[in-house]
Amino acid sequence: MTSPDKSGYQHYLKAQRNLQPNTINSYCSGLNHLSKHCGQDLFTLTQLDELDALLVRYAQGGVDQAQGNYGSWAASNALRHWRDYVALIQGGGSVLAQGPTLESFFSDPAEAGLPLPLNQILYGPPGTGKTYETIRASLKILDPAVVGDYDAALATAVSLEEKSQARETLKDRFDQLCAEDRIRFVTFHQSFSYEDFVEGLRAETDETSGQIRYQVVDGVFKSLCELADVKVTRQTDAPLDVAGRTVWKMSLGNTQGSDAGVFDECIENGYVLLGYGGGLDFTGCTDRQAIRQRFEAAGIPLTGNTDYNLTSVTAFATRMKTGDLVVVSDGNFKLRAIGEITGDYSHKSNPGQDSDYVQMRPVKWLRQYSPSLPYTALLNGQFSQMTLYELRSPSLDAFKLEKLLQPQAMDAAATSQDARVLVIDEINRGNISRIFGELITLIEPSKRAGAAEALEVTLPYSKQAFKVPDNVYLIGTMNTADRSLAGLDLALRRRFTFIEMPPKPELLDGVEVEGVNIGQMLRVMNQRITLLLNADHCLGHAYFMPLQDDPTLSRLSAIFRQSILPLLQEYFFEDWERIRWVLNDQSKTDDVAFIVEDKALGLAGLFPGVQDKLRQTPQWQLNESAFDKRAAYAGIAGGQSEAQQDTAVAAASPEMATAG
């Protein structure tokens, strides 16, 4: 296996992280600087636990301020990337392979025979297309052929319309997989909890007794894992078109009760049994009135026309028809089998046995699942507590039902290829330890089901053993400018592959608004922000992408008013003078400067007689008229070419000269 070194690190940054040469040089300089500070050559340090310890040391403040305050961005990012590069090679993915393998690895790890990361986070400043990119990243896992077609279409597209059409095709496929419940999307926030993500208790009213009861409800991640782990254990030819067929939900015993064996009996013998009816034989009854008379003749009292004994037997014996489909539930949140009614009602005699389950209909079992399938694979809402009732739209999703009835692979190897993706937007805004709980260990590739060091835990609410399948992928997005958390949970840091999403002003180089090159304008602003703050607070290109369709001054003005200026105020804590530097207002005349001094505020008028004891500091205000003037935007770049700007930044700070 190839050993990590500086050359491989540079290749890794270029190919896997898509970084520019000056950014790569900055990272290498950062790692050299850290090497001097900690007294060891980090380019020879390949122990992941030691690298994790260094990440804790340098993640917040960079190098100690006594050592020159190198800066948290250059230091921690350089170290984080080295750690990821080392982990990649030690996991078997060498970036130093020779020949075609090297090229294929740079362009597509899957083509090089390397697995896609099970856990990845797309991180970068606001507006760099992180959420936008999750669509492509999800399809790279689930349908790489579609992504290949999309990339080829973009490569040959000439017009903006052709590019938009290629994107629409990609998005349509993404939406289709979402509808099939193979992709789920959630957003973390401060109130998102373990109960939302894994499992928790939910209070519900029992439909028969009216009493409050508590049920364990699966969260979004647990239910997706169970969906990915489900295997079809029984399969026969099924109708592919369910139009015109009545679909029934039915319970066959309680999995936790004394009648738990009813389901196995029904599966083995090819029928369904109803536990209502008091053991009576309803053969010959054709309507509700006949069913009622049979009850009355046997002396079994009914509470009224809505008595469930009467309702359920009527549906089972008279309304259910040959050709109807029956879905067998497992509690309110899962289903375990699908069958087709193949004959009329009959009475099943059980001499010497419990006479509760004697109402019978013959069934052809079409599908059986183990473990039980989450209700989301069929319904838009959970099952009702009633034993037998008709499933209808909008609760029943006919498309999902037809999907379940399509022929499916039954062997474990084929089933494991049915991957699922959970997209977690703003992953750093949630309380990671509170949300993931004990699952923070189980999501590690080496701890997944089937791995050499596979682990499972007993969940606190359901008391069930749980493991994370190896075909569940996590894709997170992280805004590096978000100050909602002081630092990213190190446990999360170790378990995810981080993929940088930098601003790409080159995507806007062909966009001009009244002669102002938007790509160059964004590039220069980000270079100034990098020097004044850091690269984590740059401006993303996505803010300006609407100008591709509408390259007008009014649209550019709206972008600056509604997005850019508010974001800069957030970045600089309303330090208006620094914002002026980003916009180059100090080099403009007041009529085309976005931020100008408020000269109406004079000390002499406000503090007569004591103005000489007060220090006059500039007060700033927005110049509304500048937003509608071309010269205001043309002046941002200061009239310098891109090469001149790069030279100026490099001269100011070679190690921080990163154009994102």
Describe this structure in words.
Helix content is 37%, strand content 16%. The chain contains 24 helices and 21 strands. The strands form six sheets. Strands 5, 6, 7, 8, 9, 10, 11 and 12 form an eight-stranded mixed beta sheet that branches.
Notable features of this structure?
660 residues, 24 helices, 16% strand
Q: What's this, in brief?
A:
It contains 24 helices and 21 strands.
Helix and strand topology:
Layout: H1 6-15, H2 21-38, H3 48-58, H4 72-90, H5 100-107, E1 119-124, H6 130-142, H7 144-156, H8 160-179, E2 183-187, H9 194-197, E3 199-205, E4 212-218, H10 220-229, E5 231-235, E6 247-250, H11 262-269, E7 271-274, H12 288-297, H13 308-319, E8 325-329, E9 334-341, E10 346-347, E11 359-374, E12 388-391, H14 398-405, H15 412-415, E13 420-425, H16 432-436, H17 439-442, E14 457-458, E15 465-466, E16 472-479, H18 490-495, E17 497-500, E18 512-513, E19 516-517, H19 518-532, H20 553-571, H21 576-582, E20 595-597, H22 603-606, E21 620-622, H23 630-634, H24 642-652
Parallel strand pairs: 1-16, 1-17, 2-13, 6-8, 13-16
Antiparallel strand pairs: 3-4, 5-11, 6-12, 7-11, 8-9, 9-11, 10-11, 14-15, 18-19, 20-21
Structural class: alpha/beta
Please outline the major beta sheet. 8 strands, mixed
Kindly report how far apart the N and C termini lie: 32 Å
Q: Shape from CA axes?
A: elongated
Strand content: 15-25%
| Radius of gyration using CA atoms only | 32 Å
Unreliable sequence segments: 60-72, 93-109, 412-416, 640-660
Helix content: 25-40%
Question: Helical segment tally?
Answer: 24
Number of strands: 21
Mean pLDDT: 83
